[in-house]
Design a protein that fits this description.
The complex is a heterodimer of chains A (414) and B (84).
Chain A (H helix, E strand, L loop, with lengths): L8 E9 L6 H10 L5 E2 L12 E2 L13 H4 L4 H16 L4 H6 L4 E6 L5 H13 L9 H4 L4 H10 L5 E4 L5 H14 L4 E8 L4 H7 L30 E9 H7 L3 E12 L5 H19 L8 E3 L6 H15 L7 E3 L11 H16 L1 E2 L13 E2 L5 E2 L4 E7 L4 E12 L1
Parallel strand pairs in A: 4-5, 4-6, 9-10, 9-14, 10-12
Antiparallel strand pairs in A: 1-7, 1-8, 2-3, 6-7, 8-15, 11-13, 14-15
Chain B lengths: L5 H12 L5 H6 L5 H4 L3 H15 L13 H15 L1
Helix pairs in contact in B: 1-4
The chains are: A alpha/beta (414), B mainly alpha (84).
Chain lengths: 414, 84
């Protein structure tokens, strides 16, 4: 981010639809209590696949918040996005009347890894089962990984800069950084984030080729990064949308600046080359720190990528040591995603939401299901740790080789 | 060939486009545009597809370009009459 810092990009609203909570309050309560909701996959058609444990969103009925005409033309991942966007906008006190007065001043940025697999599967089954005349026209837009940006902007009438970031799992952080850049260039607000719905038969079969996927059948043992028992990651669905807004615009509206997106760095080191991700992630962290003019010692908490693959965990611990020096062994590190799973692009956005909430509450949430850490990290386990955190570093890596780091600073209030 | 009624159209608007509108509404205000009712171009295309599958006959190419339920019913029913 080389734009001038005179228009800081603030986070003013958080909307969450996660396996452990379908509101920001319930998400935070479960996250800070270290509740694990990883469980056996129950989604229809997935029972006999060799992937047994996932983080499902169970307490969510899209019809509660989304109009039927938007539901029929969208996949589950877009249902989550529309709902989370609504929650975030309400949280930021940006109502329909505020945004329709100046529709060009607000846009949407999302990232998505897999798109609308469930919707696509249904229509493809009609194609091969009954014939092409039975495929609904909304198949043309619903499967597409850009669908959520499009539908959120259409539904809310936003006409400002809209985009979709396709950069692997780390794209969740890159989308937030992209939103911050748009704000720095003059847009008042961007609704940004990611939601995913990879827990449907077709989508799950697509994931079975990943060596990094956990095949463990016991939910308490399936996702335990940074331990000797690490055996891969557990996938999840859901996600979060945030309102990224010009701090000046927020102040003008009398709305609290909850955090500032202060720095971002992104690199690429190749698919599943986890040893190389050490260098890539360290460089992303250095870029984010430089971007924010932040010394390593200022980082108060790290939300780790925590893939749960031994080589990847080692690379992440070493990347932190490379980029933060001696501070890497002292700074509290956490990975609340071990309690809900990794929602691909949505995972680091949920981590960003948790980081903002952690700074607000002065409480670093724990890493569920993880006990004996085998790396030189101060991983927060067991229960939440009180800490006056003012600067948070969120890390993400994708299975295809993207590495990203986002630096957040606690908001200065109003 | 049976005619397409406001009842059938209302059912299809719900099924293919997620728009709830009563047959009475369609009867009383047939000139209210599809766009106003919340049916976009892909939604109308879906309705046309459902009708073709249900009746086993192609609909006129202009059916998906109709702006109002009145226009749509007139065109489709005229075509069905001619085919019968």
């Amino acid at each position: 981010m080389s734009e001038p810092q005179d228009r800081p990009a603030a986070i003013t609203g958080i909307g969450v639809v996660a396996p452990n909570g379908t509101s920001t309050d319930t998400f935070w309560k479960a996250t800070q209590e270290g509740v694990s909701v990883l469980d056996r996959v129950t989604r229809e058609g997935c029972e006999n696949l060799p992937l047994k444990v996932a983080g499902e969103v169970r307490a969510f009925d899209p019809a509660d918040t989304i109009e039927e005409r938007f539901l029929v033309q969208t996949d589950r991942f877009t249902h989550y996005a529309m709902a989370a966007a609504d929650f975030a906008l309400a949280d930021a006190r940006l109502g329909q009347a505020d945004t329709s007065a100046s529709p060009y001043s607000i846009g949407v940025v999302t990232a998505a890894g897999s798109g609308g697999g469930e919707f696509g599967q249904r229509e493809l089954q009609r194609l091969w089962g009954k014939g092409s005349r039975f495929v609904g026209p909304y198949q043309s837009i619903a499967w597409f990984y850009a669908a959520s940006t499009g539908q959120v902007s259409i539904r809310r009438g936003f006409k400002g800069p809209c985009s979709v970031v396709a950069s692997d799992e780390a794209g969740g952080l890159d989308a937030l950084a992209h939103a911050a850049r748009a704000v720095r260039r003059g847009t008042d607000a961007i609704v940004a984030g990611s939601t995913e719905a990879p827990l449907a038969p077709y989508s799950m079969v697509c994931q079975l080729g990943y060596d990094e996927l956990s095949r463990e059948t016991d939910p308490t043992r399936a996702y335990r990064p940074f331990t000797d028992a690490a055996c891969g990651f557990v996938p999840a669905e859901g996600g979060a949308m945030l309102v990224v807004e010009s701090a000046a615009a927020a102040r003008e509206r009398g709305v609290e600046v909850r955090a500032v997106i202060a720095g971002h760095g992104a690199t690429f080191t190749g698919a599943s080359r986890w040893d190389r991700s050490r260098e890539g992630l360290a460089e992303a962290i250095r870029k984010a720190l430089a971007d924010a003019d932040c010394a390593p010692e200022e980082v108060d908490v790290v939300f780790a990528d925590a893939l749960g693959v031994p080589a990847a965990d080692r690379a992440e611990a070493l990347a932190l040591a490379d980029a933060l020096g001696a501070h890497a062994a002292r700074v509290p590190v956490t990975a609340p995603k071990t309690g809900i799973g990794r929602g691909y692009c949505a995972a680091p956005v949920l981590d960003t939401a948790a980081a903002v909430l952690a700074m607000e509450h002065g409480l670093i949430p724990p890493t569920p299901n993880v006990f004996d850490v085998c790396h030189d990290l101060d991983l927060v386990t067991g229960r939440a740790r009180p800490a006056e955190a003012r600067t948070a570093l969120v890390l993400s890596r994708g299975l295809m080789g993207s590495n990203s780091a986002l630096l957040l600073r606690h908001g200065a209030g109003k | 060939m049976p005619q397409i009624t406001v009842e059938e159209l209302a059912t299809l608007m719900k099924k293919a486009a997620g728009v709830t509108v009563s047959p009475q509404q369609l009867q009383e205000r047939p000139d209210t545009g599809f766009e106003t009712l919340g049916v976009d171009s892909l939604g109308l295309l879906g309705i046309v597809g459902e009708l073709e599958n249900a009746h086993g006959t192609p609909m006129p190419v202009d059916a998906e370009r109709c702006k109002t339920p009145q226009q749509f019913l007139n065109l489709v029913n005229t075509t069905l009459m001619a085919g019968a």
